[in-house]
């Protein structure tokens, strides 16, 4: 099956996947692809960090570098944390500790083993169980798992979880030129997923082209955030000069 090379991260260049010998077999990938989102990640969890689906360190480091001048922060939250890659961003920036939340028990089990000093919470992020508990929230590559109609509940929950003045940050790909391989890779992936979900149950929701910046900005603003973006120039530019990736900064009103 074809996946964008950055997998869950949703940003960067795209190519046919190459797995390490420790990664999942073709049969295991097929089983994941025919499962629900939750069950699929439970199955993939033990080998997830050996796949290109894990958010690359370059994206994490570029995000941390962009956030550093906006800190320091108190407590941090990784939304849809998976196996905990986002802690590479949160730990240096958050002095009061970090929490990861995900609905996959398998992914959280891996996160707990790798990072026993963090707090891990199993929950549906469309109904986050937090109120004014965090100063910084991040998310990497998860937005494609939510249909556009589900994003308002997700963003409202993040807004509620943040303290006044808190910040929600996540990287997104810049627009792909129609002449680029990446544009057609994303289009082909989304079409393949729509066909898969039309003929097979349960659905596996993962659509890259439903997460454009204008739609995300509208949903975040409707949830009470003030939204800006900064280019992650360390990740390069397209041939037309536009950044390959931007960091969305959604700020909750109030004094930090």
UniProtKB/TrEMBL annotation:
GO terms for biological process: methylation. Keywords: Methyltransferase, Transferase. PANTHER family: METHYLTRANSFERASE (PTHR42912). Residues 77-166 form the Methyltransferase domain. InterPro entries: Methyltransf_25, Methyltransf_Superfamily, SAM-dependent_MTases_sf. The lineage of its organism: Bacteria, Bacillati, Actinomycetota, Actinomycetes, Streptosporangiales. Pfam families: Methyltransf_25 (PF13649). This is Class I SAM-dependent methyltransferase. GO terms for molecular function: methyltransferase activity.
């Amino acid at each position: 099956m074809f996946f964008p090379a950055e997998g869950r991260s949703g940003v960067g260049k795209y190519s046919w996947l190459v797995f390490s010998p420790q990664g999942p077999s073709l049969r295991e990938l097929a089983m994941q692809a025919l499962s629900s989102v939750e069950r699929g990640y439970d199955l993939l969890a033990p080998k997830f960090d050996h796949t290109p689906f894990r958010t690359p360190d370059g994206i994490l480091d570029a995000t941390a570098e962009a956030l550093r001048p906006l800190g320091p922060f108190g407590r941090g939250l990784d939304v849809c944390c998976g196996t905990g890659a986002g802690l590479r961003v949160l730990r240096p920036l958050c002095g009061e500790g970090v929490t990861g939340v995900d609905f996959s028990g398998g992914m959280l089990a891996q996160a707990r083993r790798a990072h026993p000093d963090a707090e891990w919470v199993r929950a549906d992020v469309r109904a986050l169980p937090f109120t004014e508990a965090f100063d910084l929230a991040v998310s990497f590559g998860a937005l494609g798992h939510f249909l556009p109609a589900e994003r308002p509940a997700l963003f409202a929950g993040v807004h509620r979880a943040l303290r006044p003045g808190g910040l929600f940050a996540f990287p997104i790909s810049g627009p792909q030129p129609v002449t680029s391989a990446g544009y057609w890779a994303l289009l082909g992936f989304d079409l393949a997923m729509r066909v898969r979900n039309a003929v097979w149950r349960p659905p596996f929701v993962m659509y890259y082209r439903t997460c454009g910046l204008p739609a995300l900005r509208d949903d975040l603003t409707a949830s009470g955030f003030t939204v800006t973006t900064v280019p992650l120039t360390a990740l390069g530019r397209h041939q037309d000069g536009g950044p390959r990736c931007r960091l969305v900064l959604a700020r909750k009103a109030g004094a930090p």
